[in-house]
Specification:
The chain is α/β, with parallel strands linked by helices and 340 residues long. The protein contains twelve helices and twelve strands.
Length: 340
C-alpha cells in the first residue's frame, strides 16, 4: 500500500481542503495517508470526517512555510536539521523511508528548496524541474520546466527531456513519447541561443526527439513532452490558464445576457461546457511532480480544494505504483554512461 504524506498546512484555506481531500483519497484509492501539520488544527477537521477503516495518521509539525519565507530565511528553514515546519517534516518522512511520496499545495519555491536540501538530487541531474500536465487537442503533454529554473543551460534542458520522457511513459502511459523543444519556430535553427545549443544534445540522444515546437504545436498535441526553461514555461502556464478562464467566463456571460433563444441554447450545451471546464481545470491533475529530486514530491495550486488534493494523492500514488523514481534514475545513469 502506497504511503502518501499530505501537507495539511499547504493550501490557502488550510487545513480543511487538505484534510478533506486526503480522506477522499484514502477512501477512493486505498492509500495510507500521513497528515503533517499543526495537530491542534488538523484533528478537529479529521474528526468531523468518516474515517472508518481508513489508514490515516497525523504527524505534528507546529510551524509552516509561507509566501513570506524567501531568500536566506527560507534556506535556513529548509535545511535546518531540527526544522519543525510541515514541508520539512513531511519530506523527511519520505527521506527516511517512512513514506513513499509527499504532496503539498504550499509555496512552490519553498517546496523546491526544502526538497533539494533534504532529499538531494538524482545523480546526474543538475536542476530539478516542475512538470505539470497541459491539456492538448489529442490528450495531454508534460511541460517542463514551468518556474523552478528561470535561467537554464543546454544540459539542463536535455536532462529535463529525459525526466519528462520517463514520466510521460511510466505515469501517463505514453509509449515512446515524442519530445519537443519549445521555440519561436518549427524549423531547426530557430529559437534563442539556449534552444540552438540544446538541439545537438537532443538529436544525439536516444530520446524520441520531434524537433522544435511552437506553443500552438504543444496545445495541438504534436508532442508528449515539451521542454523549455522555467521563465518561458511559467509564461506559457499562466497565459494558458488565463485564456482558458477568459473563454469560459465570456461564454457564461454571453449566455446569461443573451436572448431567450441564447439561454435555451446555453442549457442544451451546458453538459458539453461542463466537460470543457473539467478539461481546463487544474484541480483535475491535482499537482505537478518535481522531477529530478531524489524522492517523489508533488506541488499543487495554493487555491486547491478537496478534489484537487484528492487528485494530487491519486497522481502521487500512481507514480509510486509504477516505480517512476527508479526509472528516472536508470535513464539518467544511462545518459551519463553514454556521455562518458
Amino acid at each position: 500500500m502506497a504511503r502518501i504524506v499530505v501537507d495539511a498546512m499547504g493550501s490557502d484555506n488550510y487545513p480543511v481542503p487538505d484534510v478533506e481531500g486526503a480522506v477522499l483519497a484514502a477512501r477512493e484509492f486505498g492509500a495510507e495517508i500521513v497528515l503533517v501539520g499543526d495537530e491542534a488544527l488538523i484533528k478537529p477537521v479529521l474528526d468531523s470526517q468518516n474515517t472508518d477503516g481508513l489508514k490515516i495518521r497525523i504527524v505534528h509539525a507546529p510551524e509552516m512555510l509561507t509566501m513570506e519565507d524567501k531568500g536566506e530565511n527560507l534556506v535556513l528553514k529548509a535545511r535546518a536539521k531540527d526544522a519543525k515546519n510541515s514541508m520539512a517534516v513531511g519530506i523527511d518522512l519520505v527521506k527516511n523511508g517512512e513514506a513513499d511520496a509527499f504532496v503539498s499545495a504550499g509555496n512552490t519555491g519553498a517546496g523546491m528548496v526544502t526538497a533539494l536540501f533534504r532529499l538531494g538530487r538524482i545523480r546526474g541531474v543538475d536542476r530539478p524541474a516542475l512538470a505539470p500536465i497541459f491539456p492538448t487537442a489529442t490528450g495531454t503533454c508534460v511541460v517542463l520546466d514551468i518556474g523552478a529554473n528561470p535561467d537554464c543551460k543546454p544540459e539542463n534542458l536535455y536532462q529535463f527531456g529525459i525526466l519528462g520522457s520517463i514520466y510521460a511513459e511510466k505515469v501517463r502511459g505514453v509509449k515512446n513519447p515524442k519530445v519537443g523543444l519549445v521555440s519561436n519556430g518549427e524549423e531547426e535553427g530557430k529559437g534563442n541561443e539556449l534552444v540552438k545549443a540544446a538541439t545537438p544534445l537532443f538529436k544525439a540522444s536516444k530520446l524520441n526527439y520531434f524537433g522544435n515546437v511552437e506553443g500552438k504545436e504543444v496545445i495541438g498535441g504534436k508532442v508528449d513532452v515539451a521542454v523549455t526553461d522555467g521563465f518561458t514555461g511559467n509564461v506559457m502556464l499562466k497565459s494558458s490558464e488565463a485564456v482558458a478562464k477568459l473563454i469560459t467566463d465570456k461564454i457564461r456571460e454571453i449566455i446569461k445576457n443573451g436572448s431567450i433563444i441564447t439561454k435555451v441554447g446555453g442549457l442544451l450545451v451546458k453538459p458539453a461546457l461542463g466537460e470543457i471546464k473539467k478539461l481546463l481545470d487544474p484541480s483535475e491533475q491535482g499537482a505537478a511532480p518535481m522531477l529530478g529530486v531524489n524522492g517523489l514530491v508533488f506541488i499543487g495550486h495554493g487555491r486547491s480544494d478537496a478534489i484537487a488534493i484528492k487528485n494530487a494523492v491519486r497522481v502521487a500514488k500512481h507514480a509510486v505504483d509504477v516505480n517512476v523514481l527508479d526509472a528516472m534514475k536508470s535513464a539518467i545513469e544511462a545518459s551519463l554512461r553514454s556521455a562518458e
